[in-house]
Amino acid sequence: MNLRWRRTLCGKTRGKARGETRRNLCAKLRETRGTEIAEAALVLPLMFMILLGIFWFGQAFRIYGTLTHAARQGARAAVAPVCTSCTVANTPAQNAYGAVQSALLAAKLDPSQLSPPATIPALCTCGSTDSKCTGGKAATCDVSESTICVQPNVQLSYTNATTSGAGVCGLSVSFQYPYSFWFPGTSLNKQGILLPAQAEMRAEQQ
User: Fold this and answer.
1) Cβ-based neighbour number of residue 167 at 10 Å
2) Which residue, of 62, 116, 159, 206, has the greatest Cβ tally within 10 A?
């Protein structure tokens, strides 16, 4: 309230009844009890939402880091030489999924929720001389795995690349994992997003 107006209102007055009414009004204007509760009622919900946002976005970042690590582990396992003497047949795609599954289980994530990326990484087969896949073709996912995309024998670098296979060849592993936010009372509540992950690894044998 304007200080000058308050002084005018709370100044000396004539008349007992009028003076008593004005004194009561001035006393209420000077009263500050309860303002802290009102301020807290306004600020606390906002602070709660900020803390909630920090927590859930932190969780998303943690899971994204885990997914990236799992993709890297999968790519590393896939480029390793395939076991030819094992009683159970194995392929680069199977090795990649096994490594990804182990990494997710170690982080308390569910591998059954994995799915291939909505857009397959634009990679070319080994032997392509440029990113337009000249001398080769667009790399596709190994159909033996339906939950992740394993692109074997892809060109990772086109430096000095020729159709004979020079340059850097390797393998790519990519997938996505669902994540939901929890923000009660907001449009983001239970909104799901797909966290992507991709890793490329140079082949040990070319």
Assistant:
1) 18
2) 116
Q: To 10 degrees, what angle do helices 92-106 and 35-79 make? A: 150
At which residue do the structure tokens 């182990």 appear? Answer: 102
Name the residue type at position 48: F
Per residue in 45-82, pLDDT tens?
888 888 888 888 899 999 999 999 999 999 999 988 76
- CA dist 119 → 112, 123, 134, 155, 196 (Å): 20, 12, 21, 18, 10
- Token pair for residue 23? 């004194």
Structure-token pair, residue 206: 């070319």
Residues of the chain with pLDDT under 50: 1-3, 5-7, 9, 13, 15, 17, 206
The pTM of this model reads: 0.72
Pairing of strands 168-180, 149-157: antiparallel
